[in-house]
Automatic annotation (TrEMBL):
Signal peptide: none annotated. This is PstS family phosphate ABC transporter substrate-binding protein. It comes from Halalkalicoccus tibetensis. The keyword Signal applies. Keywords: Signal, Transport.
Length: 331
């Protein structure tokens, strides 16, 4: 077997994100040294910009071991990706939230049947500028007051009297993002409930740069982006009534970081499971990574390699069983 690609070469979230726009297959020159297993074909992946590094890592490792299979990975956003997936344009959909009822209807209208797999865990982090020396933590109620539709909060002193009377510059994900959907539901009570006067972006790196450039800024995004930019951001705690908790491996995997810890998903088209290379790639998520000392599967080691968090073993077993049951049904 060829050596593990990401462990061997130290692949990071940032390196994998650099492949966006050209697709992972477009950067596969380094994969030419991988192994020819006899499998060949192309598998198209789109969806969550947040989940993209995980999917790209799994795809890169699979291509390392099957170097005649091409797997372009794009990150149009969960909502935009579902529009393509539900009309049959793509084979696999990454999602940072579950599919919505209207998306289920679109898939049904187009005869697209799918399997939902919980693949990794993440936390949505709340960031401030490193020069912010007054705020270390926000309660869920304060976050709601800042971000809800129709909010009257304009300055930091509107949140707490002792904080600066300076306007808060707000940065967050756009409405095509599953991170947007999850954040608005968890903090404001329903999908899409958010004020309209914030700087929105489809690219979390733009949010990072915005918060980095303004002492009075506040933003949110996947926790992994904070750990890639620790010198440029200040990580805030979130108090859900049990004290301030920051998103870490421990607080996300033990579910104490609430309400902003979340599972993230991979959606597989059932009809594509009749293809040998597609079945092999789907099963690859749940195969043991032989280079991992803990005996984790590829979906778990990929998650940790690019700054996410591993799903528990019972979820691996359940998802793997559902995949095998589906494969048996479609063949």
């Amino acid at each position: 077997m060829a050596e593990s690609a990401w462990h061997e070469r130290g692949v990071t979230r940032r390196a994998l994100l650099s492949t966006v726009g050209v697709g992972l297959a477009g950067s596969a020159g380094c994969l030419a040294r991988g192994e020819d297993s006899g499998l060949e074909g192309e598998i198209n992946i789109d969806g969550s910009n947040t989940v993209l590094p995980h999917s790209a890592a799994v795809a890169e490792e699979f291509q390392w071991q099957n170097n005649r299979v091409q797997i372009p990975v794009q990150g149009s956003g969960t909502g935009a990706g579902f529009q393509r997936f539900c009309t049959g344009e793509t084979d696999i959909q990454n999602a940072s939230r579950e599919i919505l009822p209207e998306e289920e209807e679109l898939a049904a209208e187009n005869g697209i049947e799918y399997l939902e797999i919980e693949a990794l865990l993440d936390g949505i982090a709340v960031w401030a500028n490193p020069e912010n020396d007054w705020c270390d933590c926000l309660t869920v109620e304060e976050l709601n007051a800042i971000w809800e539709s129709g909010s009257t909060v304009e300055t930091w002193s509107d949140v707490r009297d002792e904080w600066p009377d300076e306007e808060i510059a707000l940065y967050g994900r756009d409405s095509a993002s599953g991170t947007f959907d999850y954040f608005t539901e968890a903090i404001n009570g329903e999908y899409g409930n958010i004020r309209t006067d914030y700087s929105e972006s489809a690219d979390t790196n733009v949010i990072v740069r915005g918060v980095r450039g303004n002492q009075y800024a506040l933003g949110f995004g996947g926790a992994g982006y904070y750990y890639e930019n620790e010198d440029d951001l200040k990580l805030l705690g979130v108090d859900d009534g049990e004290g301030c908790v920051r998103p870490t491996t421990e607080s996300i995997e033990d579910e104490s970081y609430t309400p902003l810890s979340r599972p993230m998903y991979v959606y597989l088209r059932r009809d594509q499971l009749t293809r040998e290379e597609f079945r092999a790639f789907a099963r690859f998520y749940f195969e043991e990574d032989e280079t991992d000392d803990e005996g984790l599967t590829y979906t778990q080691t990929a998650a940790r390699s690019v700054g996410f968090y591993a799903i528990p073993e019972e979820t691996v077993e359940e998802s793997s069983r559902e995949l095998e049951d589906t494969i048996e049904e479609v063949q």
